[in-house]
Amino acid sequence: MKNIVTIGGGTGSFTLLSGLKKYPVNISAIVTMADDGGSTGRLRDELGVLPPGDVRQCLVALSDSSDILRELMNYRFENGGLKGHNFGNLLLSALEKIKGNFSDGLDEVAKILNIKGAVIPVSEKKMNLIIELNNKNQLDGEKQLDHNKEVRTVGVKRVFLKPKAKTSHKALKAIKNADMIVIGPGDYFGSIVPNLLTDGLAHEIYKSSAKVVYICNLTNKKGQTENFNLHNYVDSINSYFKRSRIDFVVVPTIRPSQELITRYERQEGKGSIVDFGDINREERDYKIIKAAILKKSGRAGHPHQSSTSSFIRHDSDRLAKAIIELSEMGEGRMIKKII
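Request: output the structure for the sequence above.
Response:
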């Protein structure tokens, strides 16, 4: 049975893992611990716990428990002193206090939810993301990416962790044993890059003999990845490995409808849809996989997707199928469209 390791966080990982769990593979989901917004941020500040939000989403995605239990984990209180808090976040934080550390508490929730695979915090140390803007101003915290107007007007130059955070032993072990490493999908600077910034992870991926796959972002964010095309994303990710390490990039076979493109451009401006047109760049050393991975409907596929990002997104089952077929290349199976 193949070992597939995913790297990301948030709704992107939720989408991929929900589909992958249906296949006979060993799944290890490495999750960013840089989130500091909403319920997660309040719990970090008030209780001194590690951020539970992205981990909770991955647990629910991999859960084989009843629908009501999965719904309970995602339940968000709407009134009273707990307003805005998520039940699953509270459970993870309470178990961290009871067990004495986040990983042991997570293991207990994994048992309750009967998950398929493992959810692994990329670090068991406090991760604090610093955003350096093009005007050299620095913003403190991952939540600034979406809530600070300066990000959109000035633009992000780079992000880094302060203080540095060491990659967890479990995450490094998962990479060592991986047959395939899947990066994304997810918010680029918020969910993907923070993982690669932890001490040890990028180097372990660099050394790995596993296939490394990047599920290319579908949309760009103003001030962050404005006007990025697939090559810009790959070049940026490879910069964290200090060499070319991406083997395959998965992109959709078709563009979203013009109606959806117009909605995005109205909010994010021109260049908000990732350009997959220039895919024949000669100097690239990665293969491009074209697969039917776009969600057909415009309805949100995740319980808490309500922003524009809920419209143009990956289809969970189709995306997982493409990843599984890619993992079986060389074993008598081949994806039809490889460029």
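The chain has a mean pLDDT of 90.
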